Amino acid sequence: MLKGIIFDMDGVLINSEPFHFRVWKETLQRRGINLDYNVYKDCIGSTVSFLMKLLHENYGISLEDDSLLTEMKEMKEELMKKEGFPPLIPYVKELLQNLSGGGYRMAVASSSPQSYIEKVTKHWGIMQYFNKLISGESVRHPKPAPDVFLKAAGEMGLQPGECIVVEDSENGCKAAKNAGITCMAYYNPDSGKQDLGSAYMVVEGYEEIDSAFMEKIYCHSHHLPAVICETSRLLIREMKKEDIPRLMEICSQETSKDACEGVAKPLSEELEGFDAYRSYMYEMCDMGYWSVLKKDTGEIIGRAGIEPKFWNKKKTVVELGYIIDEKYRKQGYAYEACQGIIQESVKRGAVYLYCRIKSRNKASINLAEKLGFQKTDYHLEDDEDDMEVWRYTC
């Protein structure tokens, strides 16, 4: 269960990497050293001590040169007085407000000094969202070692497996992976060409990120069933292997034979193929057929969802399908489930949804019309003559 979210600061909460490079470049220029960005970029996401090692290896600067650190801090203060703090990343405040409202514990785990973390979060009015502020200087090993993230999780009273890390650097993503924590990388072009390949997912902005999105990342990275949506009476979530016998029971009902989605494979085949289906359909495509549960009892009463399909070897579509236990038909559950899925599909940017219905299946045709689908003249080569294609415009 996701309980905590740990944020890096520089490049994730504030757009500070260009500022930091400028501070070091101008500081070293006073000593006649022209700092090459290709040298500096390897320290992004790590600590000042790690940068000092790079400066020692490339420019012969002593690891014990405390005067350089003093000069850097003076330059930093001078530039901040002139220009102010580096700006917040767009939509950071909205994201933090949403996650705070979701009840998550949150921490900053940054390679920056503790005093600077406190100044930045206080200045931008975001300190109140965080339970802990942790500096990489307070642990033995800097990123890409896991130390700072493990400390952040521990100080929030959480296990690493209960957290997500948000990072923008190669060092930070590797640190999260080394800590055994799911990482969502934020691609920040101002952080340089970072290899974010060790992150579970990469996003390019926060405007569409919320608690539900974080929960889905967490669930998928741990192979757990994510909630798709809720209606007044129903919970629609990804299937678990344990759901399959019940779903096969529903699909094998005599009255399910007219439902295209309800054509049942053998139980053994469904169970054997489930892990591959989950990995591909849920975790890669972010689609699939999902379990439909009554919220008041938790009983599985059907299966519904959307899947990508390739029609007539030339047309890629998103197809909606559903099946409801015959005991729960004519009570509005099919409409409620499909309506919830349509609304979720619209949120995800769908343009059209399609469904295939046998002409004798009057109940499904009536439902399609009620949902707003319209019959088309399109026909699939492998379908029987009585199979109709209906389309919904999102």
TrEMBL record:
UniProt-recorded Gene Ontology molecular function terms: acyltransferase activity, transferring groups other than amino-acyl groups
UniProt entry keywords in alphabetical sequence: Acyltransferase, Transferase
Keyword Transferase: yes
Pfam families in the cross-refs: Acetyltransf_3, HAD_2
Statement: the UniProt record of this protein carries the keyword Transmembrane helix: no
Domain of life: Bacteria
EC number of this enzyme: 2.3.1.-
InterPro entries: Acyl_CoA_acyltransferase, GNAT_dom, HAD-like_sf, HAD-SF_hydro_IA, HAD_2, HAD_sf, PGP-like_dom2
SUPFAM superfamilies linked: Acyl-CoA N-acyltransferases (Nat), HAD-like
Domain N-acetyltransferase: 234-394
Top-level EC class: transferase
Coiled-coil regions, chain positions: none
NCBIfam families registered for this protein in UniProt: HAD-SF-IA-v1, HAD-SF-IA-v3
Name of the protein: GNAT family N-acetyltransferase
